[in-house]
Amino acid sequence: MTAITRQLYHSLSHPTPSFLGGWIVAAGFVICWSSGFVGSRLAVAIDTPTLALYAWRFALATLLVGLWWGFRTCRSRRAIYLPSLAHEALIGSLTVGIYLLAMLLAVKAGVSVNVAALIGALQPLAAITLAGWWLGERSVPLQWLGMSVATLGAGVSVLDDFQGMGGAPAWAYGLPVLAVAAVTLGSVMAARRPATLPLEARLTVQLGAATLVFFMAAGYLDAGRVAPPPLSMDTFTTLTWLIVLATFGSYGFFNESLRLFGVGQSAALIALTPAMTLGWTALLFKELPGWLGAAGMLLGLLGAIGALAAKRSTPRAVPSFRPSSSV
After folding, report:
1. How many angstroms separate the Cα of 172 from the Cα of each of 111, 175, 223?
2. What angle do CA 314, 315, 316 make, to 5 degrees?
3. Residue 94 and residue 206: Cα distance in Å, rounded?
4. In sequence order, which residues have a C-beta less than 8 Å from that of residue 54 and are 6 or more positions away?
5. DSSP three-state, residue 110
6. Among 37, 24, 2, CA closest to 246
7. Which of 18, 53, 117, 271 is the 20 to 30 Å CA partner of 262?
8. Residue among 309, 288, 304, 297 nearest 153 (CA)
9. 313-316, long-range: CB within 8 Å, 24+ apart, which pairs?
10. Phi and psi of 262, rounded to 5°?
């Protein structure tokens, strides 16, 4: 038995708290991140205006985290500057508001949540590409190869969804691409100017900006139907799912993942969310892609993980990306 094998065997048979903690954080991040795509599927299925439901979802989440921020501020009496708030509001509008709005509209138009998750998983790769142009981050050939394979996989899955159960018009598949562009732009903007506000302040402002985006979208795209959703078990279940898992769960596990693993490995975990979303939809909705869609997802996962692993092996780190909650 080699030294590496003995070390691996010892780690598996005598796990330390940090070993178990790392697995819990990684699993929690992937589960909560993918839960947002399933939440959008649940929201579309219930009999209530979806955009208004999302607007009130973010309003409730903003209220909860705002109370936390107010409590922490009263204790610390830390000064908050208006330019920092405006910067976080812009970041939140892009990485939460427009990103989730475009994804939700895609699902409403018939794009399957599996394909939406796969296209969304290209965001770290898009951030690497934009950062290379904007922030001067260098790319390596293996990274470009992985990105090409991931993009090919997304295209194959879109073709399968377009021909199969999705039934969405061709233009609807541009919405997840728009979502990726929005969250990528916001993430790179965040990387150019490191955050100065505490976590609870950033989350409150970002969720507040998303609330405004969805109320405006409901007023413009949904005939002004912005009334609170009716109280029912389906509404309560969907709101609880979206707020607890998709908002606070994904954001909390994402920040803990950054602390434990760093940006590169956290980005690689996002590449695992399409497979988890596929598991969610198979379990809850009995939906599975065809063989072409499965092949596309496999290509997307292999390409994304390969590209991120290639970037991680270079001397310079992957640029910071700041996705908030999933859909």
Report:
1. 7, 5, 20
2. 95
3. 9
4. 43, 100, 101, 104, 214, 242
5. coil
6. 37
7. 117
8. 297
9. 313/140, 314/138, 314/140, 316/137, 316/138
10. 90, 175
Judge contact between 279 and 65, C-beta under 8 A. Answer: no
H/E stretch holding 121 reads none
Comparing 99 with 47, which gets the higher pLDDT? Answer: 99
Domain ranges of the chain: 18-312
Amino acid at position 52, single letter? A
Tens digit of pLDDT for each residue in 261-278?
Answer: 766 567 677 777 887 888
Q: How far is CA 58 from CA 3, 123, 177, in A?
A: 51, 22, 23
- pLDDT number for residue 148: 75
Give DSSP secondary structure letters for 151-170: HHHHHHHHHHHHHTT----G
Find out whether 186 and 322 touch, Cβ atoms under 8 Å.
yes
CA angle 54, 190, 196 (to 5 degrees): 100
- How confident is the model over 196-215, as pLDDT tens digits? 788 888 899 999 999 999 99
Compute the distance between CA of residue 125 and CA of residue 146 in angstroms, rounded to an integer: 9
Residue that the structure tokens 């950054």 belong to: 258
| C-alpha to C-alpha distance for 307 and 239, rounded to whole angstroms | 35
- Residue from 33, 103, 96, 19 nearest 272 by CA: 33
H-type alpha helices, the chain: 3-13, 17-45, 50-76, 82-92, 99-109, 113-120, 123-134, 141-163, 174-192, 199-221, 233-240, 250-270, 273-285, 291-312
How many Cα atoms occupy the beta-carbon half-sphere of 57 within 13 Å?
Answer: 35
Count CB-CB contacts under 10 A for residue 170.
Answer: 8
Residue 317 DSSP class:
P
Question: 239's torsion region: left (phi>0), alpha (psi -120 to 50) or beta?
Answer: alpha
User: Cα 173 vs. chain centroid, distance in angstroms?
Assistant: 17
pLDDT above 90 (res 242): yes
**Among positive and negative, which fits the CA dihedral 285, 286, 291, 296?**
positive
